[in-house]
Amino acid sequence: MSKYDRIKLLLEDDFEKLSRAKIILLGVGGVGSFCLDCLYRSGVTDITIVDFDSYDASNQNRQMWSELHEGELKVAALKQHYPEVTIINKRVDEAWVQAFDFEPYDVVLDAIDDRNAKLALAQKCYKKLISSFGSAKRMDPTKVQVADIWKSHGDKFGAKIRYELKKRRFSKKYTVVFSSEPALVKAKGSFMGVTATFGLTMCSQAIKRIQSV
Q: How far is CA 8 from CA 2, 18, 105, 167, 213, in A?
């Protein structure tokens, strides 16, 4: 028996595509950490993770492994649980996006909060990009949806992204994960049921993308 037997029953010959896929995941917090875990357990092991942050107590309601590694760098801590991943301890900002070479990767997964970096990613990587919008302030995981950027709705952060892309005369389509549930509070409260659903949905979309290649 192998740990991948059950996923192989679903994917059949496509499982080999997962084992060969090369993915970069930007941000490994409440959304990104669950996406990483899902990808790794599904047979994708050539994953580069990029984050600059360290774990603190406030992460422990929603981020994988955070309770075991308080005070440690996230990427270094996650390397202990997913030893085959490649880690980059950097803040993903607009300048980093502009300078980084995304060409070797089959899929680019965006689980960051920086608006300008998201805009730069859209313009540079839209053909490979799956981007997460706001997962905070919500309680209903059944409202998490997938659409192209121009069909997303119900999210003020997403609306700002669409507005800024239009200002830059960007009209290409790319995949986003978003929630149509209105924000319940002004503060950035988070519920794992929603943040994890975002990450697992992103993983599912990445697998579908790899299957289609």
A: 10, 10, 23, 45, 18
